[in-house]
Write a structure and sequence with these properties.
rod-shaped; 5-stranded antiparallel β-sheet; alpha+beta; 4 helices; 56% helix
Length: 175
């Protein structure tokens, strides 16, 4: 009989211990685990905060470096492609006095899988000057020269012939 009561006492003791654990879990153990997780998160944030000065310095240096690259290449962050194209053409025409920009039309846009913008540029000058300008424009890699047309017009006021070059420059953007 004594064995039976000790088994019962043992079962009651284990059952009571499990009940105490189940009852105390939401009040104490869960809060302790949550506090430990919060502590780990705060330690991680503190670690990032300590490295923030180094990160800021490297980002500032990278920003200065990228700005210098943009300045060397004469690019602006907020400039449109048409503005950039006009700046490149103007820079070249200032160097070459015998070349005149007669028109730069707004882009023609075509959308399918890609966005294709075609710019029509018309310049006036001698044949060799126009060819060197075309070479310069292709080397700038602003887009693909899809078509060129030489046009010879007679200027009746001066009684001379003028040569024009019409360039179709296409820029492809992905959606």
């Amino acid at each position: 009989m004594k064995k039976n009561s000790s088994n019962t006492n043992l079962i009651l003791l284990v059952t009571g211990f499990v009940m105490v654990l189940l009852i105390s879990y939401p009040f104490t153990i869960k809060k302790t685990i949550d506090l430990k997780n919060n502590y780990k998160k705060e330690q991680q944030r503190l670690k990032y905060a300590k490295n923030a000065d180094k990160l800021i310095n490297t980002l500032v240096q990278e920003n200065v470096f990228l700005d210098s690259i943009l300045k060397v290449n004469d690019l602006q962050v907020n400039a449109s492609f048409q503005q950039l194209l006009l700046n490149k053409i103007t820079k070249y025409t200032q160097d070459t006095s015998s070349l005149k920009l007669t028109s730069l039309s707004s882009p023609h846009k075509f959308e399918s899988k890609q966005i294709k913008e075609t710019y029509v540029i018309e310049v006036q000058g001698s044949f060799t000057t126009l060819l060197s300008f075309l070479h310069y424009l292709e080397n700038q890699r602003l887009g693909e020269v899809t078509s060129i047309t030489f046009i010879k017009n007679k200027n009746y006021r001066k009684n001379t012939f003028e040569l024009f070059l019409k360039i179709y420059l296409q820029k492809v953007k992905t959606k």
